[in-house]
Design a protein that fits this description.
Elements (H helix, E strand, L loop, with lengths): L1 E5 L5 E8 L2 E8 L9 H13 L8 E6 L4 H18 L3 E5 L4 H10 L21
Parallel strand pairs: 1-4, 4-5
Antiparallel strand pairs: 1-2, 2-3
């Protein structure tokens, strides 16, 4: 039912899915390269395959916002909003260390067609690589 994307850590992505009345979670190590922005989609594909479920089994998406790197947060929110739009399902935002029961309640009360905005812990830090 509910898929949660936590892309806030520098070195890992955590995906969780509510399955059989419990959250199943998998952590993926991030590839340290700015050219691997598709790795979030690859993680999602591997996770769903492992659980033997498809995108159609997702009834709501949750995204952890408010902490983490600017680009990582934007990628997670953009992916979730895009999937929510394509699948006609709701998307909710969650804060780091969210309560799972409250996340499930928010998912049940959410409606499709409303999308989330990224929230950041600080201003964007743009680094010149010259």
């Amino acid at each position: 039912m509910l898929l949660i994307i936590d892309n806030t850590e520098d070195d890992k992505t955590v995906l969780s899915f509510w399955l059989n009345k419990k959250f199943v979670q998998q952590t993926f190590k991030k590839i340290p390269s700015s050219r691997n922005n598709d790795s979030l989609l690859i993680c999602l594909d591997k996770f769903l395959s492992k659980l033997k479920i498809s995108l159609k089994d997702i009834k709501c998406l949750g995204v952890v916002v408010g902490s983490g790197r600017f680009t990582s947060t934007r990628l997670a929110v953009t992916m979730a909003n895009t999937l929510a739009y394509g699948l006609h399902i709701p998307v909710i935002k969650l804060l780091k260390n969210f309560d799972q029961n409250l996340a499930l309640e928010a998912a049940r009360e959410s409606v499709a067609g409303k999308y989330i905005m990224p929230e950041y812990s600080a201003e964007a830090h743009i680094q010149n690589k010259n």
